[in-house]
Amino acid sequence: MNDIMAGSAGPLDPRLNWAALSQTERDAAYDNNAAVRNSAALIADGDEYNGPVEVSASDLVLVKVRYKDANAAETDKAKEVAVSLAASAVHEDLEGADPDLRWAASVAGFAEILRGTPYARREALGTMSSLVDANAGADADRNQFRSLFRTARTLLGP
């Protein structure tokens, strides 16, 4: 995670947020669960991981979500959904990506700037503006966001 955080990734790069979220979740699980604490192998930065690997060689990532229904009892088993993302499905840049992904990337990147995170780059506002304009379409909510984006961008200054 430290190598990614030290890089020059911009507000449209999801690696930073996912890495931080993943680490936060791991820390919470470790702190709140004695069984996890007692069975977890301690791996220091730079150590090689030799545990089980569930991601196939052709996949970039495997995301697993475990959940219980809202009315489930504590003793009910959790359900699991697992989805992988093939490396071949990832685009080098946003130009080849789905319009909804381009829209989501611009909204998320702008949110990072508004939050003032250290990973946000204000110089990417021009790219975000182009993405917002190109992907708003006729959707009323997107057009309302576009209007708010323009106002906020003016208030942020150059």
- What is the C-alpha radius of gyration, as a whole number of Å? 20 Å
Beta-strand fraction estimate:
5-15%
- Helical amount: 40-55%
What about the largest sheet? 2 strands, antiparallel
Whole-number mean pLDDT: 77
**Quaternary structure state of the chains depicted:** single chain
Distance between the termini: 31 Å
Structural class: mainly alpha
Shape: extended
Instruction: Please provide the count of β strands.
Output: 2
Number of distinct helices: 6
Low-confidence parts lasting 5 or more residues at pLDDT below 50? 1-21
The SSE order reads HHHEEHHH
Strand order of the largest sheet: 1-2
Account of the protein in words:
The chain is mainly alpha-helical. Among the domains are: 52-89, no CATH class; 94-156, no CATH class. Helices cover 47% and strands 11% of the residues. It has helices spanning 2-6, 15-32, 34-39, 99-115, 125-135, 140-156, and strands spanning 59-67, 79-86. The chain has a two-stranded antiparallel ribbon with strand order 1-2. Helix 4 packs across helix 5 (125-135) and helix 5 (125-135) packs antiparallel against helix 6 (140-156). The protein is extended and about 50 Å long.
